[in-house]
Amino acid sequence: RCPGQRRFAAAAPRPGQNLPHRASPAIRRHNRLVRPHTLLLAVLIPNIGDVISLLGSLAAVFIFIFPGLCLFKIGLDDASWLKQLAAAVFLVLGSFIFGVTTVQSISNLI
User: Fold this and answer.
1) Are 89 and 71 in contact (CB under 8 A)?
2) Which of 1, 23, 97, 100 has the fewest CB atoms within 10 Å distance of its CB?
3) Is residue 41 included in any domain, yes or no?
4) What sign results for the dihedral spanned by CA atoms 78, 81, 87, 91?
5) Angle at 22 between CA 20 and CA 25, to 5 degrees
6) What is the pLDDT of residues 10-48, one digit of tens each?
7) Helices assigned H by DSSP within the chain
8) C-alpha torsion sign, points 63, 84, 69, 92
9) Per-residue pLDDT for 5 more than 70?
């Protein structure tokens, strides 16, 4: 043992030992805010399929728009017109798919 080093014999719990767990005040405050809203959404939305279709429309953002933005940034750094064209195609196609699927899922909700 090094000089000045403390010994913590009971730092790690033994297998099968239950230790009391207390959540931090921030986590408790978050739970008090989120749980009622989750319950309200569960009561007001009768079909989970509508919510899934709305979330699925956001997939166009992650599949097309974000990679298109990254490709556009790379194209600006390299000054390559081919990369800029590919980025523009990704952005236009992704925006179109996002718009169509979002309008479709919202019209199914109404």
Assistant:
1) no
2) 1
3) no
4) positive
5) 170
6) 555 565 555 556 667 787 888 788 888 888 888 887 788
7) 25-44, 48-57, 59-60, 66-78, 81-109
8) negative
9) no
Query: Residue 101's domain spans which residues?
Result: 46-109
Nearest to 65 by CA among 27, 99, 22: 99
Distance between CA atoms of residues 50 and 53, nearest Å = 5
Domain assignment present for 54:
yes
- The identity of residue 107, as a single letter, is S
* Cα distance between residue 101 and residue 105, in whole Å: 6
66-95: pLDDT as tens digits: 888 887 777 777 767 787 888 888 888 888
Q: Please state the domain count of the chain.
A: 1
Q: What is the pTM of this model?
A: 0.54
The two three-digit tokens of residue 44, written as one number: 């007001």
What are the angstrom distances between the C-alpha of 32 and each of 20, 29, 42, 61?
Answer: 21, 5, 16, 31
Angle ∠(102,107,109) on CA atoms, nearest 5 = 100
